[in-house]
Design a protein that fits this description.
single chain, alpha+beta, Transferase(Phosphotransferase), domain 1, 5-stranded antiparallel sheet, 10 strands, 22% helix, globular
């Protein structure tokens, strides 16, 4: 496995088959794990097409496995970044860490995606979810 990130809060590794393994540690690791799992399940239920899919979550080891959402983005127009994070809110989630490090680009469909939801907030759902992408 390829180590992608190793910080006080988490370790992220990429397997050779493309899965992403994230293990939480440090302050509030349990809460951050629980939040990210909850948000990813919520986004999957609402068929959000530009976030990773949760494949497994182990509360004993505080590790999740997700699909890969592409490569990190080095440059993105500020207006496009705002649009992307605002689009997420239509699915009932505010990212709460809208930084470039949480944007990826998926070459398979030419889509910008968002990752890292451990600080995200689920919003009230006043409107039905948007229709699935074609």
């Amino acid at each position: 496995m390829l180590s992608v990130k190793d910080t006080l809060r988490s370790t992220v590794q990429l397997s050779f088959d493309g899965r992403v393994f994230k293990t939480y540690h440090g302050p509030d690791a349990r809460q951050r794990f629980d939040r990210e799992v909850s948000v990813l399940r919520h986004l999957a239920a609402r068929q959000c097409p530009f976030v990773p899919r949760l494949l497994d979550a182990d509360p004993q080891t505080l590790r999740i496995i997700t699909t890969n959402c592409g490569s990190r983005v080095d440059h993105l127009d500020a207006e496009r970044a705002r649009e992307l994070f605002a689009e997420l809110e239509r699915y009932g989630v505010r990212h709460d860490d809208p930084e470039m490090r949480n944007v990826t680009y998926r070459t398979s469909d030419g889509r910008f995606c968002l990752i890292d939801f451990e600080f995200a907030t689920r919003l009230a759902d006043p409107v039905p979810p948007p229709p699935p992408a074609p």
